[in-house]
Amino acid sequence: MSFSNISISQLRRQLLKGEITAIALTRSCLERIKATDAQLNAFITLCEEQAMTAAAVADQQLANGQGGLLTGIPVAVKDIFNTRDVRTTCGSKILANYVSPYDATAVTRLQDEGAILVGKLNMDEFAMGSSNENSAAGAVHNPWDLSRVPGGSSGGSAAAVAAGQVVAALGTDTGGSIRQPASHCGVVGLKPTYGRVSRYGVIAYASSLDQVGPVTRSVEDCALMLSAIAGYDPADSTSVDCPVPDYMDNLNAGVGGKKIGLPKEYFVAGLDPEVKLAVEATVETYRRMGAEIVEVSLPHTDYAVASYYLIATAEASSNLARYDGVRFGVREDDGSGLIGMYQQTRSKGFGDEVKRRIMLGTYALSSGYYDAYYLKAQKVRTLIRQDFLNAFDRVDLLLTPVAPTPAFKIGALMNDPLHMYLSDIFTIPVNLAGTCAMSLPCGLSREGLPIGVQLIGRPFAEADILQAAYAYEQASDWKERTPPLR
Amino acid sequence: MNSRYEVVIGLEVHVQLTTRSKIFCGCSTAFGQLPNSQTCPVCLGLPGALPVLNRQVVEYAIKAGLATNSQIAPRSIFARKNYFYPDLPKGYQISQFELPICEHGWLDIETRDLGRKRVGITRIHMEEDAGKLLHNDSYSSAVDLNRACTPLLEVVSEPDMRSADEAIAYLKQLHQIVVYLGVCDGNMEEGSFRCDANVSIRPWGQETLGTRAELKNLNSFRFIKQAIEYEVERQIDVIEDGGEVVQETRLYDADNGITRSMRGKEEAHDYRYFPDPDLLPLQVSDTWIDEVRSRLPELPAAKLQRYQEEFGLPEYDAGVLSADRAVAEYFEAVVSLFEQPKTCSNWVMGEILGALKEKNLTIDQCPVTPELLAGILKRIDDNTISGKIAKTVFEEIWITGKNADQIIDEKGLKQVTDSGAIESIVADVIAANPDQVAEYRGGKEKLMGFFVGQVMQASKGKANPGMANQLLKKKLSE
Questions:
Q1: CATH assignment of B419-476, among 3.40.190.10, 1.10.10.410, 3.40.250.10, 3.40.50.1820
Q2: What is the mean pLDDT of the segment spanning B89-102?
Q3: What is this model's ipTM?
Q4: Closest approach of B147 to chain A, Cα-based (Å)
Q5: Catalytic residues of A, which ones?
């Protein structure tokens, strides 16, 4: 059974009518994973047994006419979400055998809506990376071209959804970690507004930037997944207590009369010509559909990447201090004493990129450098946020490329971290501004690689993005294209 | 004290708050439970767990701020203090750094030698405590995280104190205030109120501060005084010997009465403070502050003054009665039932506090309630019993919990005020003691006490002593 082009809503209807069962659906997912994951390496952990048990429960509920938004729908989550009874490694050796005693709120919400968790997805270690090559579980391969990266850090989430291993997945996005891999894998990835989805139980990389979001095949599925996970959580002080609209409502509202801004700083030299063409074509489609297109400016864009790598690494250096070998996770100890145990545990437990960022962040916070780096970066962040708010005084949405190029070859940038960092140049400012944005498939390169367009909305205006994305999706056929993976 | 040097002391006090749950999670703060039994993902610092601020902690901080004349910040920030230690589960402590909740406070203290002065309070901030290490043997240690994430206030004074006595006066007053407020149990042995002292010396007249040593491990007022005095002498010796005081942390060794340098790893930390991104800036509205202010209890300094002005008590009485909030409340309850404050004061300070001390009880455990005590005082006042009989009645009440009238009734302790009855006893006493009568009449008037005693004894204490005195005088001069 193939379901990779069927929406969650269609599957739900079939499940409710009894045309398919959750058990069959889940089994087919597991089979697909088994058939393809040797090539993709999208999963770190499969939880087949738990999934089949949950599927049986779902079928029972469906038979009784009960169930939630996602009852019987097989999903997977990035291995950054804590799950009780299923190990959570965060792509790191230091948590190789870590099993959390509690579930992340987003996971609980999915399960409360009846979703079936089939496994935990590969990722860059501690969500640090743009290629999913920094994983203790090994690199993930792009289903469109196995020699290429899927993007990162939620590379497993994007690859799994693109390859039809699961119907939908959760990722996290700190500087583009949902949108960039979604773009590289030709799927829909949404980074909600900071505070829209609880971070409780999500292993922190950079707390002021991290946000949970869905990765799906379609805009409608994205809306459904967001409806399931969004909302205030008293366990996360930074989650925001404001009403969650029904994102499925008015999806087909269209873009007539909407103003879409093109930030001039995002259409610059260095942008791959094919990406540029695809994005421009998308703009034309929107114009045809009745949107008004205007040029806007986000003047502080140039400082975003630098600010991000100061703020994110500063927070990470502190967030990752708890991996000290004392209470959980891997401990390396040759008996040379406490300091030795700390040093060995962290030297052996963390990969190079994580160590690099811990060192950068520690430096940025150090006495004598704090003002010049961390504090300055925070001031720039305020200016960047203001840029966006100013732009949203004039327009309803912003439209930009997601990544400067389509997916690159595995290994191509591993020895060039600065170049790698620049692959998030168009996504990072959104995290700094704290607003919401989506990566939406908008083309294929001549080499057959997906290209994404980014739609950025006002804070908490995910519905605006979803409506505009849905309109484009209806007017194009990118959703119907699937990777050549067998 | 050496006359060539001025002593400069600043104090950092950690006040453990009495909230039932921890500062950033719902776990209990109860003391003495099984190791790690009061923990959850948040206070264990597990991956993905997030802190949520306990509102009660903020309220207690506001209380402490108001009671120390501090300004309450409308917006304050939680910061992370980063360092590695096995008792610190997250690898950072959530504290406040740049914008604490309280600043610019003060307390007025008084010492015998130096009189009254004002000690500045630089800041009061909220933070979480660390866990505890239990050292099993020389090869291994165990970590108990029950205490991790329990709420603390850190109260930082200005370097305004000039002697160990002033430091103690400040500490005692601060201790009294936080206990009065009910935000701390004040138990110094269990570490609920702990103090670090920054001590330096400088030649008289020099404006810049000398290099300070930070003294730790001070868990009683006595040790604090001893440690400071030792440290001052030590620093004087160092300087007099041509040396220089080193900035360092020194542990007080109570067994030997000295301070010892804590060299090495604890020193030279760069804590890399930065605002905690998991917690929003804390907003405290004026309404909230006013609401907390309206519920503040009357503080000891105010009571001390009011007891003298309103009740006309001597300063000594007012001081004793106001020192402890529960004693003060007991006393005020007695006064509200029997409006002779000095009599009430005498009984509370004498009988009640004496008996409690003897039996090692607190005022809350006193079997003689304010109502019962007032009952005795009323019967003295209306001459039903004498002051002496009253002490017997008091003892009976202590044991039985019955009220004064019941006991007077049952035991037949009602004072004899019938002059005929007393007259006959007086006559018997005079008849039985001819020698003493002769001596009295011969001018040895001191014997009056003897006669009164005899009458009281014969009446089993029930004769009204005033009447006995009067009648004796009359009969003896006949």
A1: 1.10.10.410
A2: 97
A3: 0.96
A4: 16
A5: 78, 153, 177
